[in-house]
Amino acid sequence: MANIKSQIKRIKTNAARTERNRAHKSELRTSIRKVREAVAAGDATAAGTALQAASKRLDKAVSKGVIHANQAANKKSALAKKVNALSK
């Protein structure tokens, strides 16, 4: 453990941010899984609504700095391809 007061605070804030980021990433994975499950079930309407929710969560994660913007764009693109292929 650190002796310096500022470093002790830094350790605490890093731990809090890590927990927050972990929660955001867990939400992301859950919303992405819901889209994939809806696509696998063949339900186009559920997949569309789940895609909207997942896109919103991905954008929110980018704005909070949890994930990189390119990673979110790649995930949104891949999910949209799956949903669009389902609706055709």
TrEMBL record:
Write down the Gene3D superfamilies for this protein, in alphabetical order: Ribosomal protein S20
**Family designation:** Belongs to the bacterial ribosomal protein bS20 family.
Q: Does the keyword RNA-binding apply?
A: yes
Output the HAMAP family linked to this UniProt entry.
Ribosomal_bS20
Q: Where is the composition biased (Basic and acidic residues)?
A: 17-29
Q: What does this protein do?
A: Binds directly to 16S ribosomal RNA.
Q: Say which domain of life the source belongs to.
A: Bacteria
Q: What is this protein called?
A: Small ribosomal subunit protein bS20
* Record carries keyword Protease: no
> Which keywords belong to this entry?
Ribonucleoprotein, Ribosomal protein, RNA-binding, rRNA-binding
Task: Give me any GO biological process, just one.
Answer: translation
Q: What SUPFAM superfamilies is this protein classified in? A: Ribosomal protein S20
Which is a Pfam family this sequence falls into?
Ribosomal_S20p
Write down the InterPro entries for this protein, in alphabetical order.
Ribosomal_bS20 (IPR002583), Ribosomal_bS20_sf (IPR036510)
GO molecular function, a single term: small ribosomal subunit rRNA binding
* Chain segments carrying region Disordered: 1-29
GO CC terms on record?
Answer: cytosol; small ribosomal subunit
